[in-house]
Amino acid sequence: MRDIPSEISERLGVCGSSVCERVGFWSSFFIGRPYLVSPLGDGDGDTRLRFDSFDCMTFVETVLALSFSQKPNEIIENLDRIRYRGGKPDFHLRNHFVSADWIPANIDFLSPMNEFADSVISKEIDRIAFFERSGKPIPKNYPVDKNEKIELKYISKIKAKEVTGRISDCAIVLFVGGVEWTIISHIGILSKHFGKGVFRHASSRNGFVVEEVLDEYIGSRPNLDGVAFLKIKDLRAETNQFENPC
Fold it and tell me: For the chain, how many structural domains are there in total?
């Protein structure tokens, strides 16, 4: 694994800050960095940790890993823990499907904010077809069902603006609808900046990481069904692994 650049390592371990303050800092730190389709390649080797470009998923995962790390050698461990089943870097073990894989795998520090939900979406995903489209068929004896039924509670588009204003801290934002083969079509971070909520995400439309007004972004997505929010728990405050030494 390559060395962590000084612009990253020198900013780790912020004393006395909450997880939302750290998420706010790191999500703003990468504004302007280029958007790149499939920045991980096969998900193994040095490319799984990069700070020069992102897609929407790797942007969120990198911000979380940095927010949970105090030392450079913790970053890749935390990133692998977030991204792969069992923390083992492997394309077939990556949490590709946000609703089916990523949320359940990270339930220790991400909590669905279902108290705001007014809708439910149910869909079957074809994991085998997904890997075949990716050019990486599932190996023999790989335990997987051809079709998996997934449900996700979410907030309808018409109610999203009201709920956004009620979220007082940071959150992961999931966008429901707009893609036929899965439930979640996009992901980003809602952060509070001078008391106002701002949405930061790696945008394919803009070609780089941007900061936008969440309500305006939702309104610009005509095929969107709605959104869901995930609360971010402060692991530093809850476990010795992330204990603040300052």
Answer: 1
